[in-house]
Specification:
12 helices, iron, 8-stranded parallel barrel, oxidoreductase, about 350 residues, IspG_bac, elongated, 5-stranded mixed β-sheet, alpha/beta
């Protein structure tokens, strides 16, 4: 897939846009005003693979508390600010590497100038975030009273032009909606109008199951079209789940690899093992690995190795026994109870040989 070329921006050590890898973001549920808890949560989410981490900054105590968080972790911290430009100034003083603030919502033009002049020396990017629920009344009225892709784009351009007039183009733009087709259409329209990096997400996506599906469809469709530079999966759950789903989306499209990928077949009448339990056991057994390999769990020896020949390693169950295979070739037959240990043994032998 040919990727849309956007203007790259730098958030700490992470490049967003251009030809940089598509980064995964999430948002902490802890206020940085609670310093110890915020640091612990930042470290936890970084360990799961968060590459950019955002904190809500509702007051000055939170803005100042960011300083300790920034110093404690090695990933970029984004301050999420609404309306009060003074919180943005304080967050920059605390060392954040990016801001999420809409320049059209922070009052007088002088306030915008103060923010831009604060971030300009450090080249700190500003993310402009448009949501269906926060479109200005005049834009909604002009588009029939309902959020449309054209209304979303108009809302984004209103903020973008403010920064452009100040000759500040270190921008990342998001156009989030809970309606997946609207989200896709909005990003598609904006992608043709501006050269800035795009932050993809389906907002208010819901609980893990539905939210993951909606996010995979919305984010995945755009990424497959070459649109998007950084992503956040928004789930009503632990932010660690957002990271995992984001990694799966990127891995499924072949854009990045994050440790092992498990592939497994659905059950059918030929299956003579407890396939669901077996797949879950393998998933848990390989979760500590960091090498980007494909591991297959197949229900029968008849089709297993052939259907999963693209897997680096795999197992296929039979009646009381099964096979261990690699790249479509059978390595050995073992009793059913030994399938998982034998699989791990072959994987670890291969890793040791290549290290």
């Amino acid at each position: 897939m040919k990727r849309r070329q956007s203007i790259p921006v730098q958030a700490g050590k992470v490049t967003i846009g251009g030809s940089a890898p598509i980064s995964i973001q999430t948002m902490s549920t802890v206020s940085p005003a609670h310093t110890a808890e915020a640091i612990a949560d930042a470290k936890r989410l970084a360990s799961y693979g968060a590459e950019i981490l955002r904190f809500a900054v509702p007051d000055m105590e939170a803005a100042k508390g960011l300083s300790a968080v920034v110093s404690a972790v090695d990933i970029p911290i984004v301050a999420d600010i609404h309306f009060d430009y003074r919180l943005a100034l304080a967050a920059v003083d605390s060392g954040v590497q990016a801001l999420r603030i809409n320049p059209g919502n922070i009052g007088a033009d002088d306030n915008v100038v103060r923010v831009v002049e604060k971030v300009r020396p450090k080249g700190i990017p500003i993310r402009i975030g448009i949501n269906t629920g926060s479109l200005p009344a005049d834009i909604l009225k002009a588009h029939g009273g309902h959020p449309t892709a054209a209304a979303m784009v108009e809302g984004a351009l209103r903020h973008i032009r403010i920064l452009e007039r100040l000759d500040y183009r270190n921008m990342v733009i998001s156009l989030k909606a809970s309606d997946v087709p609207l989200m896709i259409e909005s990003y598609q329209e904006l992608a043709d109008k501006v050269p800035y990096a795009l932050h993809l997400g389906v907002t208010e996506a819901g609980l893990v199951r539905d939210g993951s599906i909606k996010s995979a469809i919305g984010i995945g469709t755009l990424l497959y079209q070459g649109i998007g530079d950084t992503i956040r999966v928004s789930l009503t759950d632990d932010p660690a789940e957002e990271i995992k789903v984001g990694q799966t989306i990127l891995s499924s499209l072949g854009l990045r690899r994050f440790g092992p990928t498990l592939i497994s077949c659905p059950t059918c009448g030929r299956t003579q093992v407890q396939l669901i339990e077996l797949a879950k056991e393998v998933e848990a057994a390989i979760s500590h690995l960091t090498v980007p390999i494909k591991v297959a769990v197949m229900g029968c020896v008849v089709n297993g190795p052939g259907e999963a020949k693209e897997a680096d390693f795999g197992i296929a169950g039979g009646k009381g026994s099964g096979i261990v295979f690699a790249h479509g070739k059978v390595l050995r037959t073992v009793p059913e109870a030994q399938l998982v240990p034998a699989l791990l043994e072959e994987i670890e032998k291969s890793i040791a040989k290549e290290s």
